[in-house]
Amino acid sequence: MANLARNKKAFFDYEILEEIEAGLVLKGYEVKSVKLRHMSLKGSFVSVHGGELFLTNASIPLYKQATVSDYDPTVSRKLLVKRKQIDRLTGKAQADKLTLVPLSVYNKQGRLKLSFALAKGKKKFDKRQVIKQREDDVRIGRTMRQRH
Question: I need a labelling partner for 101 at 20 to 30 A (CA). Which of 57, 74, 78, 109 fits?
Answer without folding.
Answer: 109
